[in-house]
Amino acid sequence: MNPYLIIGSGAIARLTLPLLPNPGPVFVLCRRSDAMADWRTRGAIPILGDLDHPNTLSRLGGLAHTVLHFAPPNGDGHEDRHTKHLICTLRQAKILPQRLIYISTTGVYGTRKDIWTVETSAINPTTARAIRRADAESRLRRFGQETGCRITILRVPGIYDSHRLPLERLKRNDPLPLENPWTNHIHSLDLARAVIATLHRGKPQRIYHAVDDEPLPVNEFYSLLAQHFGLPIPNKLPYEQLADHLSPISLSFLRESRRLGNQRTKQELQLRWRYPSIREFLNGSEFL
Known about the structure:
There is one protein chain. The protein is α/β, with parallel strands linked by helices. It has one domain: NAD(P)-binding Rossmann-like Domain (Rossmann fold). The protein contains eleven helices and 15 strands. The strands form five sheets. A seven-stranded parallel β-sheet has the order 3-2-1-4-5-7-12, with helices on both faces. Strand 2, helix 2 and strand 3 form a beta-alpha-beta unit. The longest helix has 20 residues. The radius of gyration is 19 Å and the shape is globular. The termini are far apart. The mean pLDDT is about 95.
């Protein structure tokens, strides 16, 4: 048996759970008690605890051979206190996990314009949320080096599926940057499949890009969606004019440009995407 501990009980955790190979008990950390019944119906064992409050995490130590860390960082500061508290809890147990997979963000690279970016490219996080993710990566890699736990990091771009598309933005006709930065994407099911492939074939202390096969200029991405759903194609404005129309967080996403390669993921994890591009997703059965 291979006991699992899932940290972060959101959509990706729910997609990953039924794909787990030969699971023993699967424990799931739940921040709210009203989420626990749902996880029980899925066959998991929920544990009530909050990563913001380390005194609630004591039951997590020594539970699992494999930890799947899907939880986002706290929303302030430059360190990921959630990951800090989790590692401290795991360290205190007599039995340490043998494997830990962490879902991070491709935002740790900062902006790379149109330069192809691979897993060995230097990171340069510029937003507070990306700095916190880089902090989490550093803490986890150090934990792996010091304990022998096999740490694998999946760097993930914008996640989409039929329920997670920026259609409201198109309906509002929010403008896009004239500069047209590059964007990268992954379908939520393919991200769950990447987690499973990492369990089977991921190398220790290794980073993989969980990104699909087709980076797109942001204007092309939104044009594809607009044409498919019969919505207006947004106007384009220079960055200095976008601040009058968009929230600071939306603007910060659009200021970063990255083209991410996934050859390491394909070669080492032997993974082929269910949805290799947003085009194939839009042409698929979900919208017929």
